[in-house]
Amino acid sequence: MPNSQIQISNVSKIFSTGGNEIVALDDINLEIQAGEFICLLGPSGCGKSTLLNAIAGFSPPTSGKITVDGKPVQKPGPDRGIVFQEYALFPWMTVEKNIAFGLEIKKIPKAQIKGQVDALLKMLNMQDFRDRYPKDLSGGMRQRVAIARVLALDSPIMLMDEPFGALDSLTRRNLQDELLRIWMEFKKTIIFVTHSIEESIYLADRIIVMTYRPGKIKKEVIVTMPRQRDPSSVEFNELKKILSLLVMEEQTRHHEDQIKVSTAD
Amino acid sequence: MPFALLALWQYLSSQAIVNPQILPAPTTVIAKWWEYLAPPDAFDASQSSYLAWLFSGEMIRDAYASLYRVVVGFLIGGILALPLGLMMGANDRVYKLFNPLIQILRPIPPIAFIPLSILWFGLGNPPAIFLIVLGAFFPILMNTIAGVRHVDSIYIRAAQSLGAGQTTMFLRVMLPAATPYILTGARIGVGTAFIVVIVAEMIAVNNGLGYRILEAREFFWSDKIIAGMFTIGLLGLAIDTGMNSLNNYLLKWHRGMESK
Lengths: 265, 260
What we know:
The complex is a heterodimer. By secondary structure, chain A is α/β, with parallel strands linked by helices. Chain A has helices at residues 48-56, 95-105, 110-123, 139-152, 169-186, 197-203, 234-264, and strands at residues 6-17, 20-32, 37-41, 63-68, 71-72, 80-83, 157-161, 189-194, 206-210, 217-222. Chain A contains seven helices and ten strands. Chain A has a six-stranded mixed β-sheet, sandwiched between helices. The radius of gyration of chain B is 23 Å and the shape is elongated.
């Protein structure tokens, strides 16, 4: 397909640590269309974050090619906004300054930046927190600001690395709904890494299940259920069962691997 | 407890159990301290303004001279150490280039530079300030390097993905992220500078608190020695309090700092 926004062809990534070679990604091929919501699903150590980092441009693949809009990815850039797993807000900047940071780099006029920050804060219902520092915010609010920081730059692609992993389930559901709203309103392409099966079904157009070492694509599942999806519906739960089996196989391999490692020590 | 000690001290000296020449009574010291602080002449409006008169006491002039040396030396030391530390922390090549030299110079106490500094700069303020620069330079340098090296890579990656170039990365990410370390270095540096200034004044100059207590020894004015030491303590406390409030202000975003 020539018109896919992100093309990942034959991508492999090998980490060598102290003589050991770990194949984190093994011959990954994936095409992502503009506006798609993709979830990368798998147990920890399956290379889903490695793949995301490669798309982000933080660590280039050992072999293979990643292109975005036909251009090869070489370094990180504002066309691919990232929301991290940890709280990667700058703690020395207020909420306002965090959101404005990318815009100030682009040398956008002050008045315009202020207008944009205002609009984003309003959309996220956080006007009262404009002058607060990240340490004063709850986990959910911090991730809202992290999303706003990316939205401010109007990146067409949003890369999200287990962004809601540390949140309680209620906050998590809230943010998932908010993210879906943003996704529909701004027509972003989202690549979302998660190890939660339910989260992936709730959010994604397409779920990419990955295997544990070497990291390969085990299966692609297209989710056709209309949104807002109901986690208690029969359809939802059937898909959950299928995905659980797939992920459990990999989780077991991961577990066996860990036992091997610990007995080898 | 301090009162009990004071009382004991007063008792020992006033009963001449210890020689008051060696350990004068606290009351004598306080009287001397006041005399040292107070203006020497009566106020005369035709000679000077009231404010100038108020600060014409010997102690005020000594404290000012010492403080001036500390501030100038500390600022020069900081201005040299900060950029070098930032570069050494951020760039491995620069680090390898300067590190051997620094590792050799750093363990030499600034005091050991006294002969050389007099040889190079003669007497007066320059050698004293040179020594203070040395005393302030290394703690700030070492902590700045450590601070930059400990910047969480997630901030770097976040800034890169938001489009930050080298200068932005330096000034708006690395520098603030390293601030807690840098301020620790500054606080140690100012402490060292204060120690060094007293020693330097005993040797190279003829005013300042360090000079004054050495001078007092030559006249056997033990009450003035203790009064001078007391002033040194007060000034040190004031400097540390000042650094502490600067710290609290600059790190108001820091998780560990509860806003007061």
